[in-house]
């Protein structure tokens, strides 16, 4: 399993709606509103890096109200 944190910036006032929609997407472990330079942080997983990429590009990027994302894969050193 490959996991990543996805940091999301949203349009003003859209963070809660974005996190609720993303929280229902298969492969998303958790979606939470936060303060700071990002509005929502998501923990997601996929079987492979390609699966995770498809989740981010094909499902998460399609959520209305998102302006930017940054995907940070979890590494085990």
Automatic annotation (TrEMBL):
Gene3D superfamilies on file: 3.30.70.920
Domain Transcription regulator AsnC/Lrp ligand binding, chain residue ranges per copy: 6-74
Pfam families: AsnC_trans_reg (PF01037)
Stretch forming the signal peptide: none
Stored InterPro entries: Dimeric_a/b-barrel (IPR011008), Tscrpt_reg_AsnC/Lrp_C (IPR019887)
Protein name from the UniProt record: Lrp/AsnC ligand binding domain-containing protein
Organism the protein comes from: Streptacidiphilus cavernicola
Lineage start: Bacteria, Bacillati, Actinomycetota, Actinomycetes, Kitasatosporales
